[in-house]
C-alpha cells in the first residue's frame, strides 16, 4: 500500500504548529484588560497582530503591514523554551537570556522545512535587532499593549514592580515613541494622570 | 492648554483594541494540545494565523496569505457578543445565531473609524460566506486545527459529542479538503486509526 499524498514538508509544518500550541501555556506578568487573570503569550501575540492591522497608519515610518503581522505572530515563540521576562523585572542577565532565546529560535523554527524555517528565523532576528522600520513598529506595539492593560486595571503590574513615571518613559515610552508616536501621545494624558494620582497616595 | 496630537481616529482604534481584549475570555469546546484546559478564541485565532503563515502553499488554490491572516485574526471577534458554537453541537438555530453574529460584527467593527470598520466588516462577511479562495482556505484552517487538538488529546471533544467518522467527514473533512486537501490527507491516517480504535472499545 502506498501513501502518495503524504508529504514530509506538510508533516514538518504540522509538527511545528503542534509545538507552537505550547505558547498558550506561557504566562506573562500582565493581566487581561478586565484583570481576571494573567495573559498568555499566544493570545498576547494575537492581540499585537490586531494592533498592527488597525494601527499601521500610525507607524513612525511606512511599514509593510503583512511583514509586521508575521513578525508579531512569531516573535514570542522562543518563550516556549525561554519563558517570558517582564520588561520591568530587575536583575536579569541580558546576554545569557539572549543566548537561551537564540537557541530556542533555532530549535523551534528548525522544525519547519529548511527554507521556511530560515525565513522565519531571519524575521525573528529582525524583530530582536529592532533596526528595520517594520521591527521598530512591531516593538512599539509589543511595548504599548501592556501599558493599555495596566491603565485598564488601575495600574496593573506597575505598583508591584515599583515602576516610576521616568522608568516607564525609558523602558517603554521611548520605544513606543520611536515606532508609533501618535499612539504614545494618545495614551500620555492617562499615563500622567495615573502616576500623578499614585504619587499622591 | 491645547492637545494638538490627540486624534479621534487613534482614540477609536484604541477603544476597538481594548474591546477586542475580551475575546481572550471566550472559551471554546476544544482544549489545548496538552489537554490542560479549554482553548480561548483569541489564542485560537493566533494559532490559525500561524497555520496560514506556514501552510499557505497547501491551499487548494492560490491565496493572498496576508488577507487570509487578517481574516483569521478578526474572524472570531463576533464571539465577544455571540459566544462560540462548537461545530459538533446539536440543536442550534443557525439563522438566529447568524443574526446575533451579524449584529455583533456591526457593533464591534463599528468602533473603528468608518472606512476601516467597513473594510474589516467586509472581510468578516467574506469569511462567513466562504466562497472566495482566501475564505475557503481560512475556513479549512479553522476546521482542521481542532482536529489536531483532538488527535493530540486522545480524541478530545469527539467522545463527548459522540462524533462518528462519517459526521467528521461531513462537518469538517469536506471543508478542509475543499481549502487545504494536503493537510487533511496528512491527518487522515491518524483520524482513521482513532475512530477504528474507538469503534472497537
Ligand atoms: Ca473559529
Describe this structure in words.
Two copies of one chain form a homodimer. By secondary structure, chain A is mostly helical. The first copy, chain A, has a single domain (8-200), classed as Hypothetical protein af1432 (Orthogonal Bundle). Chain A contains nine helices and two strands, in the order H-E-E-H-H-H-H-H-H-H-H. In chain A, strands 1-2 form a two-stranded antiparallel sheet. In chain A, a hairpin with a 6-residue loop joins strand 1 (27-31) and strand 2 (38-40). In chain A, helix 3 packs across helix 7 and helix 7 (133-152) packs across helix 8. At the A-B interface, helix 1, helix 2, helix 3, helix 7 and helix 9 of A face helix 1, helix 2, helix 3, helix 7 and helix 9 of B. The complex binds calcium ion (CA). The site of calcium ion has 3 residues of chain B, from loops.
Give a brief rundown of this model.
Two copies of one chain form a homodimer. Chain A has helices at residues 8-20, 41-55, 65-74, 79-82, 94-109, 114-129, 133-152, 165-179, 181-200; strands at residues 27-31, 38-40.
The unreliable regions of chain A are: none
Main beta sheet of chain A, described?
2 strands, antiparallel
Characterize the overall form of chain A: globular
Order of helices and strands of chain A: HEEHHHHHHHH
Count the strands of chain A? 2
Oligomer: homodimer
Q: Architecture of chain A, CATH level 2? A: Orthogonal Bundle
**Quick check: average pLDDT of chain A?**
95
Strand coverage percent of chain A: under 5%
- How many structural domains can be distinguished in the coordinates of chain A? 1
Largest interface: A-B, 53 and 52 residues
Instruction: Calculate the terminal CA-CA distance of chain A, rounded to whole Å.
Output: 75 Å
Helix amount of chain A: 55-70%
Structural class of chain A: mainly alpha
- CATH topology group of chain A: Hypothetical protein af1432
The total of helices of chain A stands at: 9
Computed Rg of chain A? 18 Å
User: What is the CATH top level name of chain A?
Assistant: Mainly Alpha
Q: Give, in spatial order, the strands making up the sheet with the most strands of chain A.
A: 1-2
